[in-house]
Design brief:
The chain has 465 residues and is of the alpha+beta class. It contains 13 helices and 16 strands. It has helices spanning 6-9, 59-63, 114-119, 128-150, 209-219, 255-276, 278-288, 292-301, 309-321, 338-349, 399-408, 413-424, 437-445, and strands at residues 18-30, 34-40, 48-53, 70-79, 87-98, 154-155, 161-162, 174-175, 202-204, 221-229, 242-251, 305-308, 353-359, 375-383, 387-394, 430-436. Strands 6-10-11-16-15-14-13-12 form an eight-stranded mixed beta sheet, sandwiched between helices. The chain has a five-stranded mixed β-barrel with strand order 1-2-3-5-4. A hairpin with a 7-residue loop joins strand 2 and strand 3 (48-53). The radius of gyration is 27 Å and the shape is elongated. The relative contact order is 0.11. Bound molecules: 4-amino-1,4-dioxobutan-2-aminium adenosine-5'-monophosphate and magnesium ion (MG). The site of magnesium ion (MG) has 2 residues, from strand 15.
Length: 465
């Protein structure tokens, strides 16, 4: 008999028909006459209840139907008498695909800590929490493609292995086939990269932006969506060494249009979650964060505040002068810490904030320089609970200005000659930004550690599974 997914069975009302379902046992309870199995197949947060009449089925066989076992059940769909479900299945036959020894299967009791579940990342998708999180993750990926596709953006694939440091921040993982035990040196005592796979140093990308800009200056509007790698040694609940980033880039957009695109994009994704993942979100709200749904609605319904960095710093300095304590100092020219960003969003404005026009010293070389000679047309979108969720800017389109700035920030021209060519030939104003996919997921799911919204997190000293 054809298998039906539990998500579909739960919607049916054609009682009396035979159905087949397959899945993993969550719990089994009962007495000597009847047994109740809660079965889940990952298609939904909800389990289906299987009722087993012990007169009909071999009791020895039923003993192996324990938490974690995988079974196939054939039986009759009936209206449920019990609370909390509308349909259940009266089993006629059960096939056991694979047992799970109760002595060793780690997911026995309910309510394991998230820390413990990280240690068994290979099994945690079988829990309610991670089932919900990974279904939401899927839906968010679909929403992202739909948003851009519907607006005429082209999905553009940028390389993962590159020879340039797009952000100029030097936080790259090197890619090499050199024998590290036996490195050949040049006459000057430097590593001889001519023998390396690419004939020069190469690394994993920290951002697809530079290549994305090349595409925007030809196709008009593009976006990337792929893995990004950063060897920054930040062991925080908001940093991963491998994370996914979405980077739209649009020819002719100036910073105002870039800000509007960022707001529209995030609001669209959150609305999509509310429309398509409400069962999972309700579960996560119930378990972890009672205000989750309310907060998602609030962000969809309200414009983001737009504020220059200089004004933001004034607000922070005022807070300090009134006695508010930050761990890190704040003043014009300093990079804002997450605590400062969250103060603006959570305490002061109580809304998402787009901060613009940062000091050029704390931002990347490619950002458009303002006429004041001090600031650049950067924009960071700051979110409640998260801090920075998006970083972006209008790009410097002037060849000489860009070249001078790159040189003064130590970005070698020989590494970015191809990037500079877009300014040499047919340059135009353009803008873009990068959204950290896992930071968006933190916000949407209400989880508080970024390790819990990606299936297999990579962080300093951790690359298991
Ligand atoms: O602000 P960032 O470094 O900006 C860029 O990479 C630009 N090239 C984007 C662009 O303009 N096209 O990173 C963008 C976003 C951040 O706002 C944050 O959400 C996320 O990427 N991000 C991280 N997420 C998880 N772990 C990390 N280590 C992250 N670093 C940045
Ligand atoms: Mg940033």
């Amino acid at each position: 008999m054809q298998r039906t997914k539990i998500v579909d069975v739960l919607k049916r009302t054609d009682y009396g028909v035979d159905v087949n379902i397959k899945g993993w046992v969550r719990t089994r309870r009962g007495n000597k006459n009847v047994s109740f199995i809660a079965l889940n197949d990952g298609s939904t947060i909800h389990n289906i209840q299987i009722v087993v009449d012990l007169a009909k089925l071999d009791e020895e066989k039923l003993k192996t139907v324990t938490t974690g076992a995988c079974i196939s059940v054939t039986g009759k769909l009936v209206e449920s008498q019990g609370k909390g479900q509308t349909v259940e299945i009266q089993a006629d036959d059960i096939l056991i695909y694979g047992g799970a020894d109760p002595e060793t299967y780690p997911l026995q009791k309910k309510g394991h800590s998230l820390e413990f579940l990280r240690e068994i990342a290979h099994l945690r998708p079988r829990t309610n929490t991670f089932g919900a999180v990974f279904r939401v993750r899927h839906h968010m990926a679909i929403a992202i493609h739909k948003f851009f596709h519907d607006r005429g953006f082209f999905y553009f694939h940028t390389p993962l292995i590159t020879a340039s440091d797009a952000e100029g921040a030097g936080q790259m993982f090197q890619v090499t086939t050199l024998d590290l035990e036996n490195i050949k040196l040049t006459e000057e005592g430097k590593v001889d990269y001519s023998d390396d796979f690419f004939g020069k140093p190469a690394n994993l990308t920290v951002s697809g932006q530079l290549e994305g800009e090349l595409a925007a200056m030809a196709l008009g509007a593009i976006y990337t969506f792929g893995p990004t790698f950063r060897a920054e040694n930040s062991n925080t609940p908001r940093h991963l060494s491998e994370f996914w980033m979405i980077e739209p880039e649009v020819a002719f957009n100036e910073i105002e249009e870039n800000m509007q695109l960022a707001q529209d994009f995030i609001q669209y994704c959150i609305q999509w979650a509310l429309d398509n993942c409400i069962d999972d979100l309700n579960f996560l709200a119930e378990m972890y964060d009672k205000e989750l749904i309310e907060r998602l609605r609030f962000v969809v319904d309200n414009d983001f505040v737009r504020l220059p960095y200089t004004e933001g710093v004034k607000i922070l300095e005022e807070a300090v002068s009134k006695g508010y304590k930050f761990e890190y100092p704040v003043g014009w020219g300093t990079d804002l810490q997450s605590e400062h960003e969250r103060y603006l969003v959570e305490q002061h404005f109580k809304k998402p904030v787009i901060l613009t026009d940062y000091p050029q010293e704390i931002k990347a070389f490619y950002m458009k320089q303002n006429d004041d000679g001090k600031t650049v047309r950067a924009m960071d979108v700051l979110f409640p609970k998260i801090g920075e969720i998006i970083g972006g800017s209008q790009r410097e389109e002037d060849f000489e200005k860009l070249r001078t700035r790159a040189a003064s920030m130590g970005v070698p021209e020989k590494d970015i000659w191809w990037y500079l060519d877009t300014r040499r030939f047919g340059t135009a104003p353009h803008s873009g930004f990068g959204l950290g996919f896992e930071r968006l997921l933190l916000f949407v799911t209400g989880m508080t550690n970024i390790r819990d919204v990606i299936p297999f997190p990579r962080t300093p000293k951790n690359a298991d599974f």
